[in-house]
Amino acid sequence: MVFQLTEEQLAVKEAAREFAQNELKTGVIDRDRHMTYPTEQVRMMGELGFMGMMVSPEYGGSGMDTLSYVLAMEEISKVDSSCSVIMSVNNSLVCWGIETFGTEEQKEKYLPRLATGEWIGAFCLSEPEAGSDATSQRTTAVEMDDHYLLNGTKNWITNGGTSRLHLVIAQTHPEKGHRGINAFIVETDSPGVTVGAKEDKLGIRASDTHTIMYNDVKVPKENRIGDDGFGFKFAMKTLSGGRIGIASQALGIAGGAYELAVAYSKEREAFGKPISQHQAIAFKLASMATEIEAARLMVYRSAWLKDRGMDYNSASAMAKLFASEVAMRQTVEAVQIHGGYGFVKEYHVERLMRDAKITQIYEGTSEIQRIVISRNILEGQLYLPIYGDFAVEQA
Ligand code: CAA
């Protein structure tokens, strides 16, 4: 077992850290307060290769592994989770979904634009009555001569107002249940696509979350992804990897709050010494560091499994479940360490605490992750961490 990043992975981590600290930190509080979409910052992320990190160079991407992507997500999320969710949806849901399951024509047509950030993508699964219960899709895609006719409403769509491409999940054969669902690539300038108002959110306030309406939108047949009826499996398989992205976002939020708490506790004095010298605070820092390290191992491992073509469905659900709960707990601790200063906007930690909450909700709530994990234990293969023959023998 080698707990060591390669030189290339370390360079990616360093580049992302520099970008986040130098380019994202300035203005992040204002963008949060005014819900200002980070247009310039997203443009820079495209230029630096962060928008298509795992897309192969053949299609204009950076051709990196999942672990490199996780490292970049972690560093960017320490500072600005609005930027990292834009990046995460584009990379691990939209680009990965198209590259893994799309036709050669779809990849050639769309990936170069998405991977460079020229186009931003959105993943349109959730509906007013189909959130956690994702099989209950009401959006319909009726098959016509040379196209599908798309009708319905999607909500909570990240990148909803800024995307040029939607991956839309819709029901084609209601009598077949989830086996009648399809996934489509929809260009957002198609007649009949309407973007609703931007949501006013608790956290990740600068990211762009909207309701989207499709009214008799004609989607060319060649824009369907996979065989007829593959749409639900497409969504599940794509989300399984997407959860690694959100887990790394949660890890970054926790890490960002921890770094701020350590620095503050060394500067702030009470009772004649820095508060870090009081055991009450020193023990908090020790617990924070321990939990964050445990989350980091789970997140990196799920990326490692994915990079080796091994089963990562349980691992990504566990990583997201644990990392998001660590993010919530540790951001609350960071606010506590900051005392009154933690309660005001200037010190960043209250924003990190608000941003942490969504990681327990999107791409599958914590409750959904527990469903995925428990079903893998009880109905599927008994979950075993893959540490070689020893683990197999233990079974
Ligand atoms: N890979 C492949 N197939 C899978 C799968 C996976 N990971 N998970 C499920 N499936 C298949 C099952 O095998 C089954 O197929 P068959 O019937 O052909 O055998 C089919 O999918 C249905 O599965 P279930 O019977 O398990 O379905 P269910 O209704 O009980 O629910 C669920 C499954 C896991 C709860 C699912 O509905 C789910 O993941 N819900 C959460 C949805 C979610 O994560 N939404 C996030 C929105 S996207 C977002 O947030 C992006 C953003 O903007 C940040």
Report on the structure:
The chain has helices at residues 7-24, 28-34, 39-47, 66-79, 81-101, 104-115, 231-267, 279-307, 313-338, 349-358, 366-378, 389-394, and strands at 121-124, 140-143, 147-158, 165-171, 181-187, 193-198, 209-220, 224-225, 269-270, 273-274. With 395 residues, it is an alpha+beta fold. It folds into three domains: 7-119, Acyl-CoA dehydrogenase/oxidase, N-terminal domain (Butyryl-Coa Dehydrogenase, subunit A, domain 1, Orthogonal Bundle), CATH 1.10.540.10; 122-229, Beta Barrel (Butyryl-CoA Dehydrogenase, subunit A, domain 2); 232-378, Butyryl-CoA Dehydrogenase, subunit A, domain 3 (Up-down Bundle), CATH 1.20.140.10. The chain has a four-stranded mixed sheet with strand order 1-4-5-8. The chain has a four-stranded antiparallel sheet with strand order 2-3-7-6, covered by helices on one side. Strands 9-10 form a two-stranded antiparallel ribbon. The model is unreliable at 390-395 (pLDDT under 50). The structure holds acetoacetyl-coenzyme A.
